[in-house]
Amino acid sequence: VQLVESGGGLAQPGGSLRLSCAASGFIFSSYAMSWARQAPGEGLEWVAGIYSAGGETRYADSVKGRFTISRDNTNDTVYLQMNTLKPEDTALYYCAKDSHFYISRSFDSWGQGTQVTVSS
Q1: Residue 82: is its pLDDT beyond 90?
Q2: What is the DSSP string of 23-76?
Q3: How confident is the model at residue 55 (pLDDT cuts 50, 70, 90)?
Q4: Which of 22, 44, 52, 88 supports an S-S bond with 101, CB 3.0-4.6 Å?
């Protein structure tokens, strides 16, 4: 299993970024996927998840209404569209493979992370 995140960078407060996670080494369409983040000095925070077929999503309260998770099962990629960014969104963002087709938050593989910094 390999998960490779991209799309991180520097954004201004109120701005947007779109993260991508390219997956390989497993049947992508059979597993739920999630994004999680870790801010400096903080623990890991689950951010958003999407069912294997893409029909259902879940979000942490901290990002609900601002972030959107989606997936492309043809190209084995999961996305995180982040709008109205805040400085507190600054973190290392990870893509994670769930152990089930539904969002169980039992993860068995992680990417290396992509840094998101929100600052003026």
Answers
A1: yes
A2: EESS-GGGS-EEEEEE-TTS-EEEEEEE-TTSS-EEE-TTTTTTEEEEEETTTT
A3: confident
A4: 52
